[in-house]
Amino acid sequence: MSHPVFRRRKKVIKPGYQLQSAFYWAISLFVYSLILGFIIFYPLSQELYSAVTAAEKARISELIMTLHKRIWPAVFMVSVLVWLQVILVSHRVAGPIYRLEKDVEELLNGNFSGRMKLRRSDQFANELERTFNGLAGYLEEAKKGDGRLHADIRAKLEAVQASLKTMDRGALEEAQKTLSGIVRELKTHLDAFTAATRRG
Q: What is the dihedral of CA 181, 184, 190, 193, to 10 degrees?
């Protein structure tokens, strides 16, 4: 589960999020462009409407046509650049989300030994790494502790089983003490787990 820092070759790794973000930005830019066009061309159209002489109307018409030829191609180019920028910038958010999903799958499969490693340019890299790696470390230690506890209990139960076969009084008393100790260990372990989950 521990992954080296790598270069993601694919720029669209979470299409739902990235393309939706680009779409919203494109719509916003289109609306802003219409507002800009209205601010620029509405006063000129009013001026054209109120012009008296043919020469004045021709001058305003030529100005309007010139502005159309210059503004809308520029708006189109800027729209394309903004759309591409949104894809690239959203990649820095989508990448950590993608990595988190994969690493959580590893946790669900019982692999607690790995650690998350994101690119320094990714958004929320430090926060995600610290939180996820803390969780993975806690689960790894809990798994090791459970393994040690289970091995210890198994050894003690096997000793009790061997003692019961002798059926003498001393062995039975020793078996009773061992069983009481096992019950206490299990209760302590359960209480510690419950307290840790409540703190989390």
A: -90
